[in-house]
Write a structure and sequence with these properties.
Elements: H1 9-15, H2 27-30, H3 35-44, E1 47-50, E2 58-61, H4 64-72, E3 77-78, H5 107-115, H6 121-140, E4 147-149, H7 150-167, H8 174-185, H9 198-221, H10 228-234, H11 243-256, H12 259-274, H13 276-284, H14 289-300, E5 305-310, E6 314-316, E7 319-321, E8 326-330, H15 331-334, H16 370-386, E9 391-393, E10 398-399, E11 408-410, E12 412-415
Parallel strand pairs: 2-8
Antiparallel strand pairs: 1-2, 3-5, 4-12, 5-8, 6-7, 9-12, 10-11
Bound molecules: protoporphyrin IX containing FE (HEM).
């Protein structure tokens, strides 16, 4: 689609031929100009066929109700790597990192059940004090009266500590986990990508797997503990996994919980700063923090899309889908659907049904870690409010070049001295 810089995107989105709209272009998210294209699709062509794109032909599903319809019908709309996986870009042949997010039942259900105890309510209750302690440490260490990058000093710092805890990995080596996570999820065409080919990425993934496998083997010999690796090393459905399978499931936890929560921490501050009356309302009514957290996750929508592949002929929103078609659900658009969510472009801390958003997906693949993410975000905002930190965003955010993760790379801020 390649819109020239400086163009009025609203005008362009409404004047271009409908069949030329291709919402897969990572530039739309990098330049933060995606809104009018989806607005037009939701109005005029909610289940939109894009005949040509860098990822081949695909259906773009942009309305809330149609997205739910696709997600709950996993018998027809498959997540399996064998037919292409969960991203608009097909899983690279021979280099897949299959895990239960990229599987259909029954394998999906067995593995998910096995690891669900890593984030069950009992484990989360135990984690809360540790999360609070670290959040306090990070917030107290922030400079006052000078500009710094919130993404690095807060979002990455807190989520990398959480990752180290999930894996029971040495906390002083947490930067390694972040580097791996960034490598495994980046768009290889992004200017700042740590790798620039699928082969390079695969080689890094194997290095990661071999390193983690040593830890896995050690934990298999010790009694079962609380961390993800130990739970998998002792689990019935997971203990006999091959190195490649271990790689897939470890990467799922590495990536699943990292960038998503990180970008909610950054997006939350951005949302509150763009809607200062809402920030004020939250400060005056700190009990709204739980609903504000859901609004943060909706407004930011950290995962832009998920992809499914039709296993048989079907229909969505009156459109005929053929077996083998690529069907892409755009959460970022469903979360802005005015038919479902009133004043959807606005950030509102006291919505009537704040958890109604689609950022965690629906159906059998609904995010396993959603309560953990909410816990981390709640503690962060409770502690910001308790300290009455006056945080000002002093420059525009820099977004990632990606059509999968709605990621903020930099957010310059200053805290009042
Ligand atoms: C705000 C933060 C987060 C967001 C927005 C998010 C979003 C998502 C989405 C969209 C899916 C796929 C849903 C679908 O296909 O219907 C998913 C799945 C998943 N997420 Fe999250 N996630 C977040 C945090 C986390 C955390 C902290 C963890 C780590 C424990 C995690 C682990 C997973 C796993 C394991 C799956 C696969 C579930 C399955 O296939 O059954 N996520 N997440």
């Amino acid at each position: 689609m390649n819109a020239p810089v400086g163009l009025d995107h609203r005008e362009l989105a409404y004047s271009m031929p409908l069949d030329k709209i291709d919402v897969s272009d990572p530039r739309l998210y990098y330049d933060d100009v995606w809104r009018p294209y989806f607005e037009r699709l939701r109005r005029e062509d909610p289940v939109h066929y894009t005949p040509e794109s860098p990822y081949g032909p695909y259906w773009a599903v942009s309305k809330y109700r149609d997205i739910v319809q696709v997600e709950v019908n996993h018998k027809v709309f498959s997540s399996s790597d064998e037919v292409g996986g969960i991203m608009i870009n097909d899983a690279p042949k021979g280099m897949e990192r299959t895990s239960f997010i990229r599987m259909d039942p029954p394998e999906h259900d067995e593995q998910r059940r096995e690891v669900s105890s890593t984030v069950n309510p009992i484990t989360l209750a135990k984690m809360e004090s540790l999360i609070r302690e670290r959040t306090n440490m990070v917030l107290d260490g922030l400079p006052r009266g000078e500009t710094f990058n919130w993404v690095e000093r807060v979002s990455i710092e807190l989520t990398s500590m959480m990752l180290a805890t999930l894996f029971d990995y040495p906390i002083d080596q947490k930067a390694k986990l972040i580097r791996w996570s960034d490598t495994f999820i980046c768009d290889i065409n992004a200017p700042d990508a740590p790798v620039h080919s699928e082969e390079e990425r695969f080689a890094e993934q194997m290095r990661f797997a071999e390193h983690m496998n040593e830890i896995w083997e050690e934990r298999a010999k010790k009694p079962k503990s609380f961390d993800v690796i130990s739970i998998m090393a002792h689990g019935e459905a997971t203990s006999k996994m091959t190195l490649r399978q271990r790689m897939g499931i470890l990467i799922l936890f590495l990536v699943g919980g990292n960038d998503t929560t990180r970008n909610s921490m950054s997006g939350g501050l951005l949302g509150l700063s763009r809607f200062p009356d809402q920030f004020r309302k939250l400060r005056e009514n700190p009990e709204l923090v739980t609903s504000a957290v859901s609004e943060i996750v909706r407004w930011q929508t950290p995962v832009i899309h998920m992809r499914r592949t039709a296993l048989e002929d079907a229909e969505i929103g009156g459109k005929p889908i053929k077996a083998g078609d690529k069907v892409v659900v755009w959460y970022i658009s469903g979360n802005r659907d005015e038919e479902q969510i009133e004043r959807a472009d606005e950030f509102i801390v006291d919505r009537k049904r704040p958890r109604e958003h689609m950022s965690f997906g629906f159906g059998i693949h609904r995010c396993l870690g959603n309560r953990l993410a909410e816990l981390q975000l709640r503690v962060l905002w409770e502690e910001v409010l308790r300290r009455d930190l006056r945080i000002e965003v002093v420059d525009k955010p820099v977004y990632a070049y990606s059509n999968f993760l709605h990621a903020i790379r930099s957010l310059p801020v200053r805290i009042e001295a």
